[in-house]
Amino acid sequence: MRKAKAFANRVPRLAAHLSAKEEDYRARPPIIVNSLPKSGTHLLMQIAQELPDRRYFGSFIAQTPSMTLRMRSQGEIDRKIAAIVPGEVLGTHLYYTPETEAALRKINAIHLFIWRDPRDVLLSEAHYLAKMNRWHAMHKAFAALPDAETQVRFAITGNGGNYPGAEERIGSYMGWLTSDSCLSLRYEELVDPQTQLGQCQRILDVYKATARAPGSLPSAEMLVDAINPARSHTFNRGGIGRWRKEMSPANLALCEERLGPWLAS
Predict the structure, then answer these.
(1) Is the pLDDT of residue 9 over 60?
(2) Helix (H, G, I), strand (E, B) or coil at 70
(3) Of 94, 141, 175, 198, which has the fewest Cβ atoms less than 10 A away?
(4) What's the pLDDT score for residue 228?
(5) Distance CA 81, CA 190 (A)
């Protein structure tokens, strides 16, 4: 559905881009919903689309598109960022590089980055690739494995080729955590009723500080009401800390060895 919408909207999006002026980006900054895959991309999109003066064309920028896993060059990423329209909200899976950071600054983007405990990411990714996305380049490799534990182990170790180990796949995003050009959000805090209101207020504060014409803003409570993880077409069971019950001791030890700096207690 998203890809079909993106295709249908190519002409109006191009027209909007060609007519855009620098002051349009200052008044109505684009919103970039960037995510570590399987960390709540659609959940954060639901929030972002509630902000005023948004335009959604169905566009998505992936560093490594799922059907090929071919790494896009920095030049390709820069060109795709430069084509973003004022007021546009779009999803991305973008690795951290200083060049990408600079390209997003150039269009005055509000950059929201969401991530999740890598152990839950790996559980979700293994299920998604084995059971849900038959068009993904790694689907057949995951589906051929005998059980969930082996699939999760494969998600951790990778194949040494176009699907590298989790420390490289996940680590490529983690520079955003220390970047002052984006707002880093934890999936766990956006779905926890005790913390989600405060996280939505952080998003509103960044929007107000960046947009020169912020318009009539929703309340943080309205952004919370927009959250519905089950509306995502990639939704499995969601939840926080599933790894505690579902990941084997051997796979947990492997995660500690490879991903230690990014694991929650």
Answers:
(1) yes
(2) coil
(3) 198
(4) 83
(5) 26
**Cβ count within 10 A of residue 15:** 11
> Contacts from 201-205 at CB under 8 Å and sequence distance 24+?
203/47, 203/48, 203/51, 203/112
Residue 89 parent element (H or E): strand 89-93
Please state, in angstroms and as integers, the Cα–Cα distance from residue 61 to each residue in 35, 76, 102, following that order.
11, 10, 16
Tokens of 94: 């973008």
Chain centroid to Cα 73, Å, comes to 19
258 with 156: CB under 8 angstroms? Answer: yes
- The pLDDT of residue 1 is above 80: no
Nearest of 207, 16, 202, 178 to residue 108 by alpha carbon:
207
Instruction: Enter the tokens of residue 162.
Output: 């176009």
The amino acid that residue 19 corresponds to is S
Axis crossing angle, helix 148-157 with helix 249-259, rounded to the nearest 10: 10
- Total-model pTM: 0.92
Residue 89's DSSP bridge partners are: 31
- Provide the residue type at 192 as one letter: D
Question: How many C-alpha atoms does 65 have within 13 Å on its Cβ side?
Answer: 12
Contact 89, 6 (CB under 8 A): no
